[in-house]
Amino acid sequence: MPTQSEIMSGWAASLRATAADIEALVAGSAVQTQAVAAQPTAAQPTGPIWGLTVLPKLTIPAEVVVPPGTQEIFIPVSVDRTDRQSFMAYIDRLVNVSGGGINVGASADYRANFAGMETVYQWSPFDDGLHWVRVAPKAKYPAGRAFQVSIRVKGLGDSQKGRGVTVRFVEGAPAQQITKPFHRPLRRLDLSGAKRKNTFDPATLKWSSTGKDAQGKGVLMSALSHGRTQDGNGETGLYADETITGADKPISYDATERAIRLHTCAFATDKRIELDHRMWAFQAVVLQGLHVDALCGTEGVWRMEAKIPVRKYSWPAFWLVNRSLKSTGEAYSQWPGEIDILEKFNGIYGTDTISTSSFAQHYGNLGSNTRVGTFGNDFEVQQYGLNKASMDEVYHSWACHVRYDANDTTKSEVTFFVDDVEVGCHVLHSRHQDLSKKVEFYPIFNVAVKTPANYTAEQYNTDEGRNRTGDMLVRDVAYYPTGAKLV
Known about the structure:
By secondary structure, the protein is mostly beta strands. It has helices at residues 19-38, 107-113, 457-461; strands at 58-59, 63-66, 73-79, 87-95, 114-115, 120-123, 130-137, 146-154, 162-169, 189-190, 207-208, 220-221, 237-239, 251-254, 259-262, 265-266, 273-275, 278-280, 282-288, 300-307, 314-325, 331-343, 356-363, 373-380, 396-403, 413-418, 421-427, 440-449, 472-480, 485-486.
């Protein structure tokens, strides 16, 4: 089951920079980029990828000074390397500075009076390390005035979330000199020429608690590979199907939606389910493709179309886990690695909105059940120009594209998409520790439940009065081994 993606908190420690410091920062970034490009091609390594990459180190100045009247202000946000993961930065808000002489006002005010508030700055693997974050006041401010720009960074861990940068208008300050660093455009997923391996008809979909039908043929499995509970994540929901006495229609076909409904709920005290000498107050639900060969492969595109729940403490996800085959051809699950294409935490970890999504990788020695590390990102879908309606009201697609680089295995990658628009890209870490080997993935789509202690059935079933659904409606889960284009 997915664990927490990097939902980060706290301000990053950084350096205070004057206008001269900014020029030095730009020069240092250029030298670093040239040094990376000049490295000779080395023999292909065999050791684990996580031993070859490190977390980028973020630098944001505490202060930027500009001439009076400047109406385009650029703040340098840089890292020392970009060879591991994508991440993003944007202006979170503007803040008054005591004695600064500029009242930025509330959110509506500063968004009306300052341009640049909606721009998202994305780093992709092997981009240049520098972005210039732009804020453009519509008024001309005289010398002595100041305001603060809060820069939010996502995807670089708990200690590198961003910082506030004070912008000062100073008489005699030099005009800013801006470079044009390289950042590749975000990709789009083109499946028009892709070859699909599986079929998925919600009206005739088959599943069982073992992942096998009466004839022994592989079907979707309505339990986790290790059972019906997930204590390691502190989950409070029992993964139920129709074989569990007392379950409330956990998996069903919704003819109106033309989708499979994965139903979560809470049981009244006298209706709780007993299993393995434990009482369960909440129903979770899962379908997974461990035994469906047509959903499994080493690379390609896995894609789901669904409405997902936004009910508090429901935990929808679409993810991949490594699988291996015994000498008999029987499939079995191996963790790590894990690729989380979608996770929505709904208040389980930190705060989020009705349009928050996330992606991540978990990695370690295959089959060890020990995670060496994880990294990922959370985001709002509207930051990528997508429908910002509540995710339980509109269908979105979530996908990832896994690609092995035949020339340099350290540059194999996984790219994440929502509605076929790229939202992130990582160097592939969820893989065999021996870089010369490939292992198959199988997909899982589920809704977990993780509530606080003593959370009541009424609280969960009514969403504390919001009446948002705790169900996932899945119209399609597809696997395309070949033919996908990233354009």
